[in-house]
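Incident log, structure service

09:12 report received: a user says their structure output differs between two submissions of the same chain.
09:20 pulled the input from the user's history:
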Amino acid sequence: MSSSPCIARLLPVSVVRLAEDAVEIRWNESVQDFALSVYRGDLPESIQTTTPLAHVTQGRSVTLSGLAVDRPHFFKLVASDGGALMVGERRPIVEGAPNLRDLGGYATVDGRQVKWGRIFRSSNLGRLTDRGLRQIERLGIRLVCDFRTEAEAQRLPNRFPNSEAVGYVRLPIQHGEFEPTSVFDRIKKGDCDWISENFMIEGYIESVERYPSAWARVFKLLAEPRNRPLLFHCTGGKDRTGAAAALILLALGVPTETVVRDYGLSDGYNADVRKAIYGHLRPFGVDSTQVEPYFTAPESRIRALLEHVDTRYGSAVGYLVKKAGISEKTIALLKDALLE
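09:34 re-ran on a clean worker, output below:
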């Protein structure tokens, strides 16, 4: 990310999807007069700065329409002083994976930002439609890490990766003896008393205490250039995936409040999925409030995990070094590779 005065004035910048072929790039509403050229590419490294898609001289946003459908969109904003900023869509359209999102663009405490198009988090990839499969292929992902148990993966096999060109690593993480595939059968029988916020928090804490080797593997894989872009996921993309995203972002220097906000996006992205689940359970006499803790992602939950990590290990980096055995050199390499 450029430190140019013009670019600094624009921050924060966001990309908002308006339609399949249109997006709006928005920036600091206090900025009114400046010169800005906008360039686009399917991948961050493929953006050509020869012919701009748009040239802006005033206003608080620019709308770009007529974009290619079924492709990811990354934009490079170049200011009049030569400064540049890369931006992308937080939630690229991938049909059948509603909770898939890019971890790029988050600012760090030292003034840098996470590179777009390098790290993705998602819900399961077993319900990708044919169209969704084409869409996710265009993200250029080279490795998928799956946190689901063996039973989860067998019940709903991933449709991606779908070729040897993309690697696949299973790193199963489980809450005690609890098997996630039994959830719906238990709930339908009226067995809901075990579902509580405390149960969920215990699972988060157990994931870091019982499975440090899984988190270590993720970091070591992410540190290898050949594995990037890398995508990691579980079933709903909020719990095990949320813990992984938090550890990665904090290790890169992203502030805690930003990490909490990213975690909370799952509730919005999974809204339609949650509505369908509640509808499916209603004929069995299940009140959605009884099971809500299992299907939602309140920020208090990730805060509880981070408080545990901070109290016991001093910080997320402290956990990774002391418990997971990740070297500070590896974390430094990740920062060099994933921040700009």
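09:41 both user submissions now match this output. Likely a transient worker issue. Closing.
09:42 reviewer note: Residues 299-313 form the longest helix (15 residues). The chain has a mean pLDDT of 95.
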